[in-house]
Amino acid sequence: MEVPADFNWNQELETAVEAAREAGAIIKRFYDRVDAALYTKSDGSPVTDADLAADAAIRSVLRERFPGDALLTEESGDDLARLSAERCWIVDPLDGTDQFVARTGQFDVFIALIVAGRPVVGVALHPPSGLICLAAAGVGAWVEREGRREPLVFAPVERGMPVRLVTSVWYGVPDSLPALTRVNEELGGEGEPPIIRTGLNPRDWLKEHRTHDALAGLVPDVMSGGEWDLAAPDLIVNEAGGVYTDARGTLHRYNKPDPRNGGGLAIAVDSVTHQRLLTALAPHLVTT
């Protein structure tokens, strides 16, 4: 599908926001009542009534508005007919189920529309607060608080300042820590980078929340989780002035036969910091 350069994706974006709001309200009700039953999926990962109800709500909205689009969600069966579809929605109805169960408040709804292997619409909603980060390809990114929407542009790392690097428990830890310790020191940090228990969420880099400037993940093969963990944050970060790639600087592709991504992660709040990160990572990448 060839997308016109001036296409703004407004209908798709607002539909994704509506679906995320419905899912977020469902999740928050379960969270507030503390009554979501917990199950274990065949891969050993947790799933709750909140995941399943949010998934159903999102699918209902997307199917009604865009019946011809394909769907790939974490909590539903994978229909490989999506591979021949021009457009595919990729959804994580509750990203951070373990954090939902642990009651840390660190969980979100992710919705992305994929065209030609890349996200063109991305929405990330935080159910406890209702905060939404959203983006449309080539148009920009925004943050919405209490119904008020404003442009989202990440503040770059000041010239000459150390880069505050983190990694995630999901992306190669602990095997990656010796290499990432050297990367962290190359970027001006000391010792091992802090390890977060979630992936990179765009709201992490809002001015009032920001405690780090970049995230790196080194994995020998495909990463844990699926495309639904990455697609929406990928677009939002890139449209907000950051850069979101694999560890070699290549953009991730989506709606693949195996809906998992390899190559690790290199994510930064600005392009200069991203290049510094890639340079520091390069000696630690396995050549093929």
Short account of what is shown:
The chain has 288 residues and is α+β, with helices and mostly antiparallel strands. Helices cover 27% and strands 23% of the residues.
CATH class of the largest domain: Alpha Beta
Q: Which architecture name of the largest domain does CATH use?
A: 2-Layer Sandwich
Supply the helix-strand structural class: alpha+beta
Main pleated-sheet profile: 7 strands, mixed
Number of helices: 6
Summarize the structure in words.
The chain has 288 residues and is of the alpha+beta class. The protein has two domains: 10-151, Fructose-1,6-Bisphosphatase, Chain A, domain 1 (2-Layer Sandwich); 165-284, D-Maltodextrin-Binding Protein, domain 2 (3-Layer(aba) Sandwich). Helix content is 27%, strand content 23%. The chain has six helices and 14 strands. The protein has helices at residues 10-33, 49-65, 97-102, 177-186, 231-239, 271-281, and strands at residues 38-40, 46-48, 70-73, 87-95, 108-115, 118-125, 132-136, 140-145, 148-151, 165-168, 195-196, 214-217, 243-245, 265-268. Strand 10 (165-168), helix 4 and strand 11 (195-196) form a beta-alpha-beta unit. It is globular. Residues 1-5 have low confidence and may be disordered.
Essential attributes:
disordered N terminus; Fructose-1,6-Bisphosphatase, Chain A, domain 1; five-stranded mixed beta sheet; single chain; 288 residues; D-Maltodextrin-Binding Protein, domain 2; alpha+beta
Produce the secondary structure layout:
Elements: H1 10-33, E1 38-40, E2 46-48, H2 49-65, E3 70-73, E4 87-95, H3 97-102, E5 108-115, E6 118-125, E7 132-136, E8 140-145, E9 148-151, E10 165-168, H4 177-186, E11 195-196, E12 214-217, H5 231-239, E13 243-245, E14 265-268, H6 271-281
Parallel strand pairs: 3-4, 10-11, 10-12
Antiparallel strand pairs: 1-2, 4-5, 5-6, 6-7, 7-8, 8-9, 12-14, 13-14
Helix pairs in contact: 1-2
